[in-house]
Amino acid sequence: MKSGYQRNIKTQMGQGLWRLPLRQQQQIQEELADRLADQGGGGREQGRGGGLQKRAPQHCYGPDIYHLLRTRMGGKEQNGFIDLEMLPPELGITILSYLNATDLCLAGCVWQELGNDEYLWQGLCKSTWGHCSIYNRRLPAGFSYRRLYLKLDEGSLTFNANPQEGINYFMSNGILMDHPTELAKFIFYTRRLNWKMLRIYLDERRDVLDELVTLHNFRNQFLPNALRDFFRHIHAPEERGEYLETLITKFSHRFCTCNPNLVRELGLSPDAVYVLCYSLILLSIDLSSPHVKNKMSKREFIRNTRRAAHNVSDDFVGHLYDNIYLIGHVAA
After folding, report:
1. Tens digit of pLDDT for each residue in 22-59?
2. How many whole angstroms separate alpha carbon 210 and alpha carbon 255?
3. Contact residues for 137 (Cβ-Cβ < 8 A; gap 6+)
4. Above pLDDT 70, what percent of the chain?
5. Cα–Cα separations (whole angstroms), residue 250 to 271, 273, 302
6. H runs (alpha helix) in 189-291
7. pTM over 0.85
8. Per residue in 238-249, is it b (16+ CB within 10 Å) or e — as a string?
9. Exposure check for the chain: N or C terminus, fewer CB within 10 A?
10. Pair 175, 152: CB distance under 8 Å
């Protein structure tokens, strides 16, 4: 089991970690193929006459990790599996950040010293859960980031099953404070929360939703791109309703706050941005839905939008249409 697990990690480690010029990549691959052939004929193939032929090196996007380690060790040969401790700490954290809590525990059995490296577990915690209240506290003696990682993973799984129970788990373990700003930052900088459960939680906690909206910076962003960025963090509901209207209203005010010069130049207002957002959502559905046979034309979109937003120019509305037509749905 250990050898199979090691091979799996080695596959992840060798996929283009560092980039080198093409000529140097080819040289490394040829050298590696010769080394494999010397060890067991793995780099040679059966020729037509029954002899062994050298396998042509294949192009790749980066060198094999073996070359990086040999360079770091001063050219010395290393037998057996790669030791992650020979890699730079940042590279080791990047590799292990792709593993879940169970795999990391298995990795800790393979690399005993890495499993007890608090710097490594601290990096994994902060790269996955970017903000926690506990990060800003004075940690007690004997505090373990490894145990914190397991608690964060357990809390995230609980949240994805029941949002309120997940938040209560974080609070009961001292990981989060019961404050809207702290909860919003935790949600904004975390990658492990299920978007459907997150939508349920934000619909119930509007105070957290308000703080979450203020964390977005839409300065100098084109309106459809800003709306996509907004819906990447706060997913839109599948049906039109009060929650969607609330989201668009909060987005419209935040967009105008972040772009005062643009608002003044184009004559926009939160109400005008609100109308444009709805127009973009409807246009996205119209252009992307296979059930709509007669797609809305650019001229029709400009005419329909200008009826509701009188102060917006035809050119600006036309650019909105082009963005949706070329890039796609704003809330996909």
Report:
1. 555 556 556 655 655 555 544 444 444 445 444 444 44
2. 14
3. none
4. 68
5. 11, 11, 25
6. 195-204, 206-214, 223-233, 242-258, 260-266, 270-288
7. no
8. eeeeebbeebbb
9. N
10. yes
Contact 306, 317 (CB under 8 A): yes
Per-residue confidence (pLDDT) for residue 60, from 0 to 100: 42
Query: Which range (29-33, 175-179, 242-246, 279-283) has the least confidence?
Result: 29-33
Tokens of 253: 């005010």
Q: Which amino acid is at 283?
A: L
pLDDT at res. 9 = 41
**DSSP assignment string, 28-64:** HHHHHHHHHHHHHSTTEEE-TTSSEEEPPPPP-SS--
**What is the pLDDT averaged over residues 201-208?**
94
The length of the chain, given as a count of residues: 332
Active site residues: 239
User: What are the E-state strand segments in 128-187?
Assistant: none
| 46, 53 contact by CB (below 8 A) | yes
SS3 97: coil
